[in-house]
Amino acid sequence: xNSICIRSPGRIxxxxxxxxxxxxxxxxATINLYNDIVILKNEGKSIRIYxxxxxxxxxxxxxxxxxxxxxxxxxxxxxxxxxxxxxxADFGIKILEGFEVxxxxxxxxxxxxxxxxxxxxxxxxxxxxxxxxxxDKIDIVKIAKKAENIYMKAPCGIMDQYTITxxxxxSFLFLDYSQLAHKYCEVPEDFNYFxxxxxxxxxxxxDGYKNRILEKxxxxxxxxxxxxxxxxxxxxISIEDFKxxxxxxxxxxxxxxxxxxxxxxxxTERTITFYKKFKENGFENAFNLLNQSHISLSNLxxxxxxxxxxxxxxxxxMENVLGCRMIGxxxxxxxxxVTKRNFDYxxxxxxxxxxxxxxxxxxxxxxxxxxxxxxxx
Length: 377
Ligand code: GLA
Description:
By secondary structure, the protein is α+β, with helices and mostly antiparallel strands. It has twelve helices and 13 strands.
């Protein structure tokens, strides 16, 4: 085999935001927007990458990828490809046969739909097939995460890589991070999903996300010292035992850390409830939890922005909207709107147009479906 084409989707997350790195639960799903990645072997000693999205191409010799570690590629669009090859080398696999890569995409960048993980997982899955590397799916998830954490310098959790690898059409995952395992939950075709891309670019390599990780580490240290517990266990016990939760809050003794821990507990509880309600066919009530999740992300976790709160709160009030919230890392990016089938789309479109005019912004509205995981096409 000389070439391969891989379709790698983006993802949304119904609920369970900013809890992957404390290893509780989320309910993410792959969507029908994707990066198509073509890899073609050649005889060279380099990789050449073409990207439609960045309107650019770049040739990188294997020598600078593997041997000159001081070359920091994290600031460049082609850093994702180098990051994957370097993380793969750390795993014990060095590809030294030249190849070309071409990426064509309809997945917006920096919109909280996980475009970077989509490229990384797609590229790695392509290499795995083309060069018969023998990686299993969990290897792919872990290597792609390492590429993002170490080589792209973005301290993200594992939700995006896992979802893109294991997603399923018309379904979401109930993802248990501590087990790295999931259950599929099929969603009936009674709902429509809209993405509102605020075009306020977010980057998880930027300070906001990094600070949340530092705060999480502080909480972890305090819990370990005082209760000999990791955050996940402290969160799960707190859901059942309010007295214990109050003791933790007393020990954290810091208004910011208290809010963050409160988000971990309430968001984890909502995620468990969301999954349970789904299993009991209580779909509409389940989607209502998205609204509460947004309040928590805004007030307790403080990763929303005033203009996003304004948008979300107005959309939540519209007739036949079941739930609406910001998704992903935050500080910009996208909002997800879940509606009943008979929702008046034009009303939302008009609302967004007026919002754009009034606030001089360029928000984009589009419909999505729950699509397939990464696959060969
Ligand atoms: C980003 C990260 C994920 C996760 C979300 C917040 O998308 O890449 O790992 O932490 O933010 O839930």
